[in-house]
Design a protein that fits this description.
- The complex is a heterodimer.
- By secondary structure, chain A is an alpha/beta fold.
- Chain A has helices at about 10-20, 35-45, 60-70, 85-90, 90-100, 125-130, 145-165, 175-180, 195-200, 225-245, 265-280, 295-300, 320-325, 345-355; strands at about 5-10, 25-30, 55, 75-80, 105-110, 140, 165-175, 180-185, 215, 245-250, 255-260, 285-290, 290, 310-315, 335.
- Chain A contains 14 helices and 15 strands.
- Chain A has a seven-stranded mixed β-sheet, with helices on both faces. In chain A, strands 10-12-11-14-15 form a five-stranded mixed β-sheet, sandwiched between helices.
- The mean pLDDT of chain A is about 100.
- Chain B is α/β, with parallel strands linked by helices.
- Chain B has a single domain, classed as 3-Layer(aba) Sandwich (Rossmann fold).
- Chain B is built from twelve helices and nine strands.
- Chain B has helices at about 5-10, 35-45, 65-70, 80-90, 105-110, 110-120, 160-165, 170-175, 190-210, 225, 230-245, 255-260, and strands at about 55, 70-75, 95-100, 125-130, 135, 140, 180-185, 215-220, 250.
- In chain B, α2 crosses α9 and α4 (about 80-90) runs parallel beside α6 (about 110-120).
- Classes of the chains: A alpha/beta, B alpha/beta.
- At the A-B interface, α3, α5 and β9 of A face β1, β2, α4 and α6 of B.
Amino acid sequence: MTEETVLMKGNEAIAHAAIRYGCDGFFGYPITPQSEILETLTLLKPWETTGMVVLQAESEVASINMVYGGAGSGKMVMTSSSSPGVSLMQEGISYMAGAELPGLIVNVMRGGPGLGTIQPSQADYFQAVKGGGNGDYHLITLAPASVQEMADFTGLAFELAFKYRNPAILLSDGVIGQMMEKVTLPAARPRRTEAEIIAQCPWATTGRVGRKRNVITSLELRPEEMEANNLRLQAKYRQIEAEEVRYEEIGVDDAEYLFVAFGSCARIAQKSMEMAREQGVKVGLFRPITLYPFPTERLRALAPRMKGMLSVELNAGQMLEDVRLAVGERCPVEWFGRLGGIVPDPEEVVGALKEKLM
Amino acid sequence: MNREEIIERGEIVYRKPTLMNDQHMHYCPGCSHGVVHKLVVEVIEEMGLAEKSIGVCPVGCAVFLYNYLDIDVQEAAHGRAPAVATAIKRLWPDRLVFTYQGDGDLACIGTAETIHALNRGESITVIFINNAIYGMTGGQMAPTTLEGMKTSTCPYGRTPELHGFPLHITEIAATLQGTAYVTRQSVHTVAAIRKAKKAIRHAFENSMQGKGSNLVEIVSTCSSGWKMSPVKANQWMEEHMFAYYPLGDLKDVDQSVFHADK
């Protein structure tokens, strides 16, 4: 498969990208608004071409534990779900973080709490960024804002997950998952051979050949050892925070105000920014691409020359806390968002800016 | 020939399996786990699969299985071992993949994963230690706890009115189309140990040949949890456990035709 530019949904792009990036296995359970990922994979039948395993599991709990098993054996594996399903996966995600396993979780977010709604939301920010399971851990969290980024970040997430032996999450939402856009899919690269996996992942349970046995576990009953394990994880997180921050800035150079928004909300905020500028208000857009690690330093550096920042989110103000932690008293920070599956109009965002910060 | 003469001639009639690590076991005196661990690695050794085996251990007493067996092991979340094993086996089809689970892990919190992995006909073996109690946490009621049996969470005895009935999950497994070999064994006598080993070997051979999924239940003692001496625990098991969980093969078929469709 060569590079190809096509029109498709964000969910479909993830499925195509996974195959093309040489993913070894997908394990998932149907839930709206992300079922197209599993549907597309089963339609494409990659087990007949690349040898990729695709399996519909009995639950999200089973899905994430299949990812745990696959990742523990060095394979490039993933799952996808939407908010309530990702809640069910938290135990397995925590185990993956504890056992330091690479793997990809896709969350095409919908409104909550509980069964909530099937309409788009960004209300799982805390769960993804702060760690939704037990224990001190972080997920590398990427927030795609286009169908193109759904494809690109599938590859990037795997790359980072293996680089740091840490689970990564693609924190998308129902807007990006369901909308159709032009997307350039990468040329297919072959799946790693078993010999390549064994060489790349000397820690994995691939069979004890020419080495001591490997054990994948998050258990350590001796507190001194468990503290040492935690300190090793924390050191890894500090390295990720130092080296993997990604963000996009639009119209920031001459801006007096800043919209801070991620994912689908950044698309709306970009339109709002253009409308505000037409009205003579110099607004820029700051879009965190990595939500963990959060672009704290860059926001802090921008803050002194801003009259204010508006965190625009499809939730009740979750990223707002990280923006305020970054900015402190350097400039006013306010929030605007809609809840429960409502996506705001660009006009509403401009109105909120004027009302709250001007 | 007496013992000295055998030693003199250098004839080894028994030795510790080379795949058992020299690690002091945490299991209580009289516990069945140690025997079953030994049988598992003996079979792996005899089948020449030491370098191709990937075990998945549970949450429960056998969580530390990875300390004792000199093969690659993944420690799964409580009840999820069959899901973990499913992925490993599908991604590494020529490996021997087995889970080793207790009754709480397999028949309670992990019932869904157990039934679905077995029903998909995954080419794995599930080793199921049924001692009718939660050993690791200190002797609480398990799904397989017998009627009338006292535990720390049914201190007046299990009653169906309050607690429901003991779960015959192995009988359920035998009804699933994906299972090839479903058997119930024990390790309380030398003869029983030999039979249990044969059963494990048959299950592992099925797993390697893609004949379907395999469940080997070992009705076991938990002398600490049952608050009995090891000898008394064996007697109690014969008198009470075997009546509820009769030993023998429940199913032995070749499901490879079904399995080849995958």
